[in-house]
Amino acid sequence: MCGIIGYVGERNVVDVLLDGMRRMEYRGYDSAGMALLSGDRFDVIREVGKVAELEKLVHDRGLTGCLGIGHTRWATHGGVTVENAHPHSDESGRFVLVHNGIIENFLDLKEELENRGDHFSSQTDTEVIVHCLARLYDGDMVHALVELQKKLSGSFALVILRKDDPDGFFCVRRGSPLVLGLGDGENFCASDVPPLLPYTREVVYLDEGDIGEVTRKGVRLWDDKGCSKEPTLQEVDWDVSMADKEGYSHFMLKEINEQGAVVRNTLKGRLAEGRVDLSEELQWSQELVASWRNLHIVACGTSYYASLVAERALSKWTDLDVRVDIASEYRYRTVRTDEKTLAVFVSQSGETADTIAAQRLARGLGAHCLAVTNVRGSTLSREVHDTLLLKAGPEIGVAATKTFMGQMTALYLLALYLGRLRGGISAAEEIRLAEELSRLPYKVETVIARENSLQGLAERYVSCRDFLYLGRGYSFPVALEGALKLKEISYLHAEGYAAGEMKHGPIALLDDKVPVITVIPRDSLYEKTLSNILEAKARRSPIIAIGTDGDSLLETYADHVVTVPWTDEEFTPFLSVVPLQLFAYHVAKLRRCDIDRPRNLAKSVTVE
Ligand code: F6R
Predict the structure, then answer these.
(1) What pLDDT score was predicted for residue 561?
(2) Ligand 1 atom nearest residue 327's Cα
(3) What would the DSSP string read from start to end of 471-517?
């Protein structure tokens, strides 16, 4: 939440900052701002709304320069106003900074500063940080930032300009991500990699507590005690086209269309002689694997739903006691986590505050921790014992689509691998399932090619206000995910329910204005779900069924049938989720919603 950026070099800093902020807008889009340093003059421009609003202001003022910082905001402390937009400065106007994160003790600090005579012009925690910094600074920036870290509790990544330092900027991270981008005669820093991609793929991920100085000539790093350290250079394997729309009207549609490739890429290099082999990435000894009794999967939102799908496969293919939790719940109740637990944390961004905190808890209790994430170098991936990457490429649309697919793929690989290591599955069965997994990209692409029918359905039902999504077994989490997609991008009320639970309550909601979207592949629970369709039909609800190719029976029960190719029961979510994503997309488009940047949301939820 909130994206921050800094640049120093020969280019027009205004263009670099605006472009970078647009590429990070998924992190927040309540307001935006930038500060430029030219000579010893700061120009600070802030505006409410998206980056495009700021852009108009900046161009009206004809600003240029070579050094500056920028911010795109998802409001936490203080309403969405120009005064609360970043950057913020201290009273003397010596420092200007942008912040991503939350300062938990800001009220105490503010009171202390006010007692010492400071005045504040915003309600933000960020303004308190810059006032503290101004008071701590005694000519040594590194020392001031070491001391500042001791004063602040909470999470933060900061990029800071100092009026008497025209050569560059400082930055610091604790709890919120920050990555430096290294160029030729120019250097960058940002919350995420996408803003850096047009200029460089050489990056340095800051560690917890790291302090950086970024100038045109290079970067210098210190740890949280002020000891100098060598930057560790890494090359990112994403390229700039991956973060562009490439002709699609929305990132979400582009990302839905990439899903076949995501499964393919996530499988690549992980199947050998028809069997799953993750031994290069997960260097687990036989003793370690044999010591596990429990498997906990912890995640939020869409990642949680991908985990619920995987829970079913993991329970089937391994002998482990599998449980899946929402991260914000896992943290606050008694869970038997110990050395006999493999704890898997699933997070697209690797920056979700609750998931990270849950990981710290599980690790503290002795669990072996594995991250399943899309972002190499993310906070989560740096804290766990092992990481399994999705290889989905950057996901820019705020509503997750292709990473849901990538997460299911990675978790299924894990399930088959664990099944093999622990003897829960025969070699022949593993080979057969791995073969079907390899066929999925083509099947996913077949479903995507049927987009037109979903557009038609969206036109038919766009005026409805409430939707019920039903599914059983593997299709239950798909129903949850389908409902989540519709509500987050179209702002319509949608509920996902276990089909068998409908008669225990939600059935009271049904009438001819409430469509029931039922995920009903030809699986072992088919007949049961068919009965639920009949129950809903008896209450006059229009029925939309997501079924299997060739299922003519469904036609007689449902008002509309959308089918996907046949696959084994375990793999049905990979196919049946796609029509639900496309339906949500087209409904939102018809309702003229801001599909890639839905209101009130941000892609990485870095607050608890
Ligand atoms: C929904 C969505 C969110 C995220 C959730 C977890 O489309 O994107 O529900 O899935 O905020 O985010 P990650 O996976 O980054 O931990």
Answers:
(1) 97
(2) 16
(3) E-TTHHHHHHHHHHHHHHHH--EEEEEEGGGGGGTGGGG-STTS-EE
